[in-house]
Amino acid sequence: MNSDALAAAAAMTGTGSATGSAGPSRTATPPAPVPAEPASTAPSAPTVASTATTPLTDQAVNVLAQLVKTSKMNRSRTTSLAEKPEVQALLDKDLFLIQSDRRTKMNPIQQLQLIRTLSQFFMERVDDGHRYAYFEAIFLGRADDPILHEYRLSVMYQLVSFSIQYPVLQYINHVMTWLCQMKNEELERNYSDRLLDMIVDHYVRTSNERNEMYKFLQPLRGTSNEFCALFFARAALHAPLNPHMVKLICEYSTTNIEFIHRHLRDTPWLGNDFAQKVVPKLVEYSLTNETHSADVLAWVICYVQFKWEIDVLANDDRKGPTKRVDVLDLLLSTDYPWSKRRCCMLASAISSSTKCEAVIRQQLKRLDVPYDYKPVIERLCAEDLKNNAPRVLESITDMHLAQELQANS
Question: Which stretches of sequence are listed as region Disordered (predicted)?
Answer without folding.
Answer: 1-53
